[in-house]
Automatic annotation (TrEMBL):
Keywords: Monooxygenase, Oxidoreductase
PROSITE patterns named among the record's database cross-references: ABM
Entry protein name: Antibiotic biosynthesis monooxygenase
Tagged with keyword Oxidoreductase: yes
Domain spans labelled ABM: 4-91
Length: 113
């Protein structure tokens, strides 16, 4: 079984309400997508025009299957207006290698630890 992955989409917009409304619309369309465990919209406390959308996928294979699918581009197109490419890429793809709950109980450990 492969590890969960998280996709981080960096967004920037002076109008936070536009990003928030678009996030809700896209998330509603993504409901029930195979392999998608959930997503969150984060807004910077220090730079309120900056946002991150974090989606969690059951595996890299599940994410890539959705990404190659026909619905991917059309569903996520509204968020492209807000892409923040100031860091080189508007998104990052990360494999979860370890995780803890708030009480220091491991939720997941990589095989190398």
């Amino acid at each position: 079984m492969s590890a969960r992955v998280r996709v981080l989409l960096y967004a920037v917009a002076p109008d936070g309400e536009a990003v928030t409304a678009t996030y809700h619309r896209v998330s509603t369309e993504l409901a029930g997508t195979a392999g998608l465990l959930g997503n969150e919209l984060l807004r910077s406390v220090y730079e309120p025009e900056r946002f991150i959308v974090i989606s969690e996928w059951e595996s890299l294979d599940a994410f890539r299957a959705w990404e190659r699918g026909s619905a991917h581009r059309a569903t996520t197109a509204p968020l492209r207006d807000f892409h923040d490419t100031s860091r080189g890429s508007a998104f990052g793809l990360y494999e979860v290698t370890a995780a803890y709950r708030g009480d220091d109980v491991p939720l997941q450990r990589s095989s190398s630890t």
